[in-house]
Amino acid sequence: MPNCYENFGGLMQGNDAAAIVTVGIPFLNAEKYLEMAITSVFAQTLANWQLILIDDGSSDDSLEIARSFTTDPRVTVVSDGMNLGLAARLNQISEVATTPFLARMDADDLMSTFRLEMQVTYILQHAEIDLTATGLISMSDACDYQGHRFSPWSSASTCSFLMHKTSIAHATVLGRTEWFIRNPYRSKFERSEDIELWVRATERKDLKIAFLADNLYFYREFESTASQKTRASIKSHRRIAREYPMTFRERSRVSARLALAHTISVLSTSRLVRTLIQRRRNSNIASSENRELFEIELLKVSALHSSLS
Length: 309
Known about the structure:
By secondary structure, the chain is of the alpha/beta class. It has helices spanning 34-42, 62-67, 86-96, 115-125, 158-162, 177-182, 193-203, 223-243, 248-267, 271-282, 288-308, and strands spanning 21-27, 49-55, 75-78, 101-104, 110-111, 131-139, 145-149, 174-176, 209-220. The protein has one domain: Spore Coat Polysaccharide Biosynthesis Protein SpsA, Chain A, CATH 3.90.550.10. The protein is globular and about 60 Å long.
């Protein structure tokens, strides 16, 4: 991969400065999306980053795609040929990272070009905060705009997280690396590693997070796997409910909600039901302003990607 990203549009400045933030992308058979995801890291307005790409046993060309970016010294690829799962790989990223801050990203998503700059700037200005999260724009498999989501926040408790009255969009999180080291993910909560982490940190009084309303993350929706992922999440949610303390009333409400979620996941095999769920999920702020923002940011990343093809 040609090492010419720093010349793109005048955005990339200070590549020789010491890295301040690590972007960690674990991947598994993501050859269709990985190159664009990585390109959106290179398009960031903040240039002093490190990128850690961790392969979780891919059998497609994902690993070769990742390695093609290692002509840039900011990029590190880790591969041991094993399939350990998301939680283990996220913990591995925290252990390998050498920067004070760490940003999450999924291999099939994209970032706004301003994401790292805005989140790092905020956390540098607020010493009392360990984590930041942002709003996100939902896009289709083909990168078509679908809507906007911002995480609701009522109070931090086991019940509020499991009822989704309180939510943190996991992939948008950027925080202090030391926080992730002292609060590792647990593999037994597959598909709900993040929820269990927020609950555990809350119990330990170690969840100091701030939310940026800006839509700095572009999240790809997959209709074909949504119901399967939902059912796996429900199992983990039930495991969390058994492990952490709640009142009888809270436990009853959570059980009822999980039962309803299971029913909806079964019904979501219907295309009509999937469409209704998607509309409800993204109906809160699906504005023309958000669409325009998304399309401008997508053009920036696409232009950089095309210049290297």
